[in-house]
Amino acid sequence: MPELRKDPISGRWVVIAVERGKRPSDFKSAAVGKEEKPKSCPFCEGNEGKTPPEILAWRKPDTKPNDIGWEVRVTQNKFPALTMQGEIHRRGEGILDYMTGIGAHEVIIDSPEHSTTLAEMEVNHIDKILWAYKMRISELEKDDRFRYVLVFRNYGTGAGASLAHPHSQLIATPITPRYVKLELRTARDYFHIKERCIFCDLVKQELNSGARIVAENEYFVAYAPFASRFPFEIWILPRRHHSNFQDIPDAERMQLAMMLKEILSRLAKVLNDPPYNYVIHTAPNPAPRPGRPDYWGTIKYDFHWHIEVIPRLTKMAGFEWGSGFYINPTSPEQAAKFLREVSL
Fold this sequence. Notes:
This protein is of the alpha+beta class. It contains seven helices and 15 strands. The protein has a single domain, classed as HIT family, subunit A.
């Protein structure tokens, strides 16, 4: 019989359609596959002049900026969604609100290699990518125009990637995104009642149950959320409480690289290398706001950063768009079991 499950973080309801009971082989999503290296790819080594100047790079010794010899490279997006120049101006027209489109939009180019996926990279190279995320979030938070910095990856055209070369993106916005704000409010309300982090409590509960656990190591745990919106959705959380992604110590960041590689490798093997997105939800910029001196005042204690990994196996249709519900044809317990038991 189908189940309705309520997500404790967002409060949304999800339909787990257990009678459909889809197994990994039931999803017809085509594998992302390898694409030949085109001479015109702007992210390939040797084509540095085809991108805006680099903002940050992990380089080999004795190499120069905007030249070959890099391992991870960050540039501005050539076609940014928001612009760095200018000040934020707000205005209203009746009950309608406007704001200037100030923000940052950057590309993190994972590797000089055109066809190597994140799941195939060495752990120490993934650690360099995570280092780039950390450095850019930390730097952009110094700009008090920006309230939030979101790092995300689109892998495969089915997940919105326009270029096959492995890369992720970062967008800094002058407002906190609605979905992140929902998580923040839930975490704050829970902390005010119980004086505990809701994410920490969830991690303990999932570890005690084990039914939805996919993988764990000394510092991180990965599990399929109780009310997963999508089949094979996975969340990665630190075992120890941290509100900010950029505060992870180096030793823990290396274990995060190991965990990310393992989860993406398991998804690739079980689901035939599907398109996917992942997003990093970290705490917003703590800079004080006019009239809000204690903006998210308890966030250090109540919020817990995490990574949400979403394989793109199903499409939203009329019911989902019209109701706000999600229909998931694979229970998170089944998904976790498939992923946990696959041999890498």
